[in-house]
User: What shape does this take?
Amino acid sequence: MPLLTVDRLTKNFGGLAAVSNVSIQLEENELVGLIGPNGAGKTTLFNLLTGVYEPSEGSVTFNENGKETLLNKMKPYAIADLGISRTFQNIRLFKDLTVLDNVLIGFNSKNKQGIFSSVLRLPSFYRQEAELKERSIELLKIFDMENELETLARNLPYGQQRRLEIIRALATQPKLLFLDEPAAGMNPQETAELTELIRKIHQEFGITIVLIEHDMSLVMDVCERLYVLEYGQLIAQGTPAEIKENKRVIQAYLGGEI
Ligand SMILES: Nc1ncnc2c1ncn2[C@@H]1O[C@H](COP(=O)(O)OP(=O)(O)OP(=O)(O)O)[C@@H](O)[C@H]1O
Assistant: This one.
């Protein structure tokens, strides 16, 4: 059974079907792209899969080791607890906290202390704090940010802020990671670094990644499989090579090259 099964999912906003009858499946350890023209419904689909919106129709089922969970009416924090993490189109870091603290927050969200050990500051509280700090530093090292531990997030260059957001999402130890336009606003050098970052996460962490991205060279370069939305509907799916040749997709992009 796939890790995530989306079955005939629909989201209506008044008379507009922002997502209409969409069915997709995500397997373990896949790197999948979700593309489509502006307003096609990509972010709405992410919002449906992460509990920001409740579907109007259809279902979303998460399968972990044979245990199926229907996500339809679950709140974002409960979905995150299951191991589904995301980043947003606009950067959402704790900008006045350090790089290290931003990542620690990710780890803390997954390793919640009991209220007693936290409030009473029991030895177990300090032990876990020290351990999570070490793990945060290890994670930052993997992504070459160990020299920025005490830098305030707001003082990082734009590309590094985006990188930190993804690292923080990884610190929640997801099985499924949604990245919403991670290359938005990046220069070519930053985009190249991001491409390597995504590849590295895919290779080393064994998680499923879904990427919304307008930068076609990035998508075609890293994704194994693509889904294409237009006006809320799924119009194509396939490998990057197949999608490049797909007439319906080329038409959706106004006859332009993709
Ligand atoms: N909360 C909302 N209320 C009403 N309409 C919405 C809402 N969110 C999105 N829409 C509409 O749904 C459609 C799909 O929007 P969405 O942001 O999902 O597209 P997108 O593919 O992510 O676009 P982009 O690539 O420009 O980010 C658009 O017509 C948008 O105006």
Summary: The longest strand covers residues 16-26.
